[in-house]
Each structure stands twice: as structure tokens, then as C-alpha cells.
Amino acid sequence: MRNPEKSRRSFLKHALLLSGVTTLPALWSKAESKDISISQTDNRDEGTNSTGTVTADDPKKDGVINNYGYNQELCRHYTCYRASKPIHIDGFVDKDAWKSVPKSPRFVDLTTGNSALLDTRAAVQWDDENLYVAYWIQEPNITATLTERDSLICYDNDVEMFIAGQDCYYEFEINAFGTIYEVLWVWQDAYKHGSRFDIPELDLLTQKVEVLGGLLDGRKHPRGGRWGFREWDLKGLKTAVKINGTANKSEDLDEGWCVEIAIPWSGMKLLAGDRSLPPKPGDTLRMDFSRFELLKERGLNINPGWAWNTHGVYDSHIPELFTYIHFSDKNGTETSSR
User: Fold this and answer.
1) What's the whole-model pTM score?
2) For the chain, does the N or the C end have fewer beta carbons within 10 angstroms?
């Protein structure tokens, strides 16, 4: 009988060599910033959206895109089909509801764009009530430690999802235990007295607030800082995780885990601002789908980030580089049967 631990080490070794994920995060350079949210037009054929493509002084260094240039060539596009019926959220993503829609390509390294070390894919569909998301996560050694809601799930292996809103964006993280972390990020230049963000749930004095884009965290987005409200929850959110293996048991070899999410449009009103909810066919939503993995090989600590499309830098918080999700009024089942 083969040694599972030896098999896992061999798997990681060869996968690591193939993926080239050891590149360090790149430095930043400054460029123009504009708001990204739900777009009312579908212009994927043009390859850009209303933000355009902004260039920077040093677009490339050592083969790594190294700027806030919002290079739209990095962004992938995905047609989001209508669900044929409401999807029951139980973590089983091999059911017919997900067989009828296309999966994303294999995730790529957040910085380099190289193929991810471990296969990770996502899919999206919608109806008038919800936006549905599924993840397929290859994992030879499933681990998780955090069980308290809104713990810093990024300290575990996790998958993450961002949704760009109007002057804000939503961050979601989940681990193999199904523990979730949510935060609403509001751009500080939009957080003003009398604005739609001037509500008790987003009170800077009474809520737990994070700051992103300051002098020390390295995320110097040209738009500036963001307030992060960790006590804000997206109302009606449903999630489920299915493990194909045994968590925290290193002596066996696992297949991986899956995540299923239903996001009600009614819970996204603050996020969307004056955009249509549910969206209309032809509308575009910017979303980011990523995975972070804590790896150790031959004493080397590796913490790669993998995403649907690369950002060119080690930062998930760039709405201008989120994937384009184009809403179709066609049914996935009807489309796949043609």
C-alpha cells in the first residue's frame, strides 16, 4: 500500500514546479481610479467597460504586470444563465442544476497568471430571487481550524468572493468547515453625511471597522482608503459546504471540497445603489472569485492566491480587475442542449 503522506508530498512537489507560484508580490505604481459596479450595458466585444484601460509608468517588471493600470486584457468574461428553477443550497454541486452551466477555467495565480497549483473552478447562475455561486476545490489535505463567524478566515485555506457595488464592494470568505467572513467595504471618499451609507449599521463610532488602503498595509489603491464594516451581513445569504475526504486528517489523501452559495438580490440593495435588482438581461456585474492556500514544501512557506483571472499584483481588492459577469435571459439547460 502506498504511503498517503509521501504521495501528497510528491503531488505538491510536482504541481508546484508546474505552476510557478513562488513569484513574490509585485510593487505598486499609481494610476487613475474610477467606480466599478453593475453596468447596464454588455460591451464584452469591445474588451473594455466604462472605466477604460488606464496605463501606468512601469507596466511590467520581471514578467509580472506591476501596476494599478487596470489592464482589461487580464479580465475574463462569463455568461451567467438563468437557473431553470430555484436551487436548493446543500453543498452538492454535482447535481443537474450545475451540470447545465459552464464552469470557469482553472483558476490562475493572482500575480503571474500561471495555472493554479490545485484545480479550482467556479460557476454562476441567477433567477429573479437569487444569484447562485458554486466552487469546485481540489484539495489533497483538507484542513480548517476556525469555527466562529467573521473570524479571519484567510488564516485558513479558503475560497473568497467579491462583488463590486456602487462606491463600495462586498467581500465573502468561507473555509472547509463552512465558517464565513463578511465585510462591506465603502470607499472613504463616498462616505459622507447624508449619503446612503449614513445609516446606523455603518456608524464609524459604534461598529467594528477595518481600514484598508492606509500607509502600512501596502494596498495603495489610487482612489484611497476604504472603511470595512465587519458587523454588516448580507441578509438572506445561504451557504453550504460538502467535503470529499476527511478534514484535519493528514494520513489519508482527500479529493477536495465544494461550496454552494445563494445571494438574494434583496440583500444587495445597499451594495447596488441605484442599479437594477435583479439585473436585466444584458447587464454586467463585476465579481472576483479566488482561493488562498497555506502550503509548506521542504520548509518553504508558500501562500499563493489563485483567482478566476489574474490581477497582476497580490491584491484581491481591485474592483477594476474583477471578472465580468454578463447576465443572459437564456436558460442554461436549453443552451447546453443545442
Assistant:
1) 0.82
2) N
